Amino acid sequence: MYLKICGITQVDQAEAIAAISEVSALGLIHVPNTPRYLAVKQIKLINQALVTFSVDRIGLFLNHGIEEIYSVVNQTGINGIQLHGAESPEFCQKLKQKLPEILLIKALRIKQKVDLVQIPSYFPYIDKLILDAYDPILAGGTGKTMDWSILSNFQPDCEWLLAGGIKPENVAAAIAQTQPNGIDLSSGVENQPGDKNLLKIAELITQINLAMKTPNMGSDLG
């Protein structure tokens, strides 16, 4: 199970979370005017603190240009990119050509089943997919849960993570219903935006482990 804790803002919390063996990636949000925004120098500082840990350091971008993303990657040393805006498959292709060694994740907001039709066009250019809850105003971090029934029998050709309103109380049900390769969350393990709660993360992992021990679960979970 690929577990990504997004919206990291503090070095000490980043180190503590990265030390948890079940955590696969930390998300660092470079989207201005959002509550968990990090400037380039802050991303670099956290990345430097994490290089000895075996976690992916994912920079999150929203409708940024390719050259700006390239600059942030080079300045900070992050090893992953999450695109959370209206980036097209062609954009992903160009970015992957520019940064072939970087883990590229595309997030899509899903409102209804028809929204899944767009997904296959991204497969040749991305490494992982995130499906998040739709909000008419906010691009992410809303704490809203998507309609998981939309994802029944969803089996894409790349690894995918479920996002949107995931928390310790509902993660087992989310896994049971959608069978993702991973989970991506932020507000579900926070005291307040950007301030993570290590006890909530521990409970989340406990619930994930219990869900994966359930019969017929776990074989497709990364």
Protein model, in words:
With 222 residues, the chain is α/β, with parallel strands linked by helices. The protein has one domain (2-213): Aldolase class I (TIM Barrel), CATH 3.20.20.70. The protein is 29% helix and 21% strand. It contains six helices and ten strands, in the order βαβαβαβαβββαβββα. The chain has helices at 11-18, 40-50, 66-76, 89-98, 171-178, 198-213, and strands at 2-5, 25-29, 56-61, 80-83, 103-110, 128-133, 159-162, 182-185, 190-192, 195-196. An eight-stranded parallel beta barrel has the order 1-2-3-4-5-6-7-8. β2, α2 (40-50) and β3 (56-61) form a beta-alpha-beta unit. α1 packs parallel to α2 (40-50) and α5 packs parallel to α6 (198-213). The longest helix is centred in the last third of the chain and has 16 residues, at 198-213. The protein starts with a strand and ends in a 9-residue tail after the last helix. Residues 217-222 have low confidence and may be disordered.
Total of helices:
6
Globally, the shape reads globular
Task: Please give the largest β-sheet.
Answer: 8 strands, parallel, barrel
Radius of gyration: 16 Å
CATH class equals: Alpha Beta
Percent in helix: 25-40%
Q: Provide the β-strand percentage band.
A: 15-25%
In terms of per-residue confidence, which ranges show pLDDT below 50 for 5 or more consecutive residues? 217-222
CATH-derived topology: TIM Barrel
Order of helices and strands: EHEHEHEHEEEHEEEH
| CATH superfamily placement | Aldolase class I
The count of DSSP E runs of length 2 or more, i.e. the number of strands, is: 10
Strand order of the largest sheet: 1-2-3-4-5-6-7-8
Number of domains: 1
Average of the residue pLDDT scores: 92
Structural class: alpha/beta
Name the CATH architecture.
Alpha-Beta Barrel
End-to-end gap: 5 Å
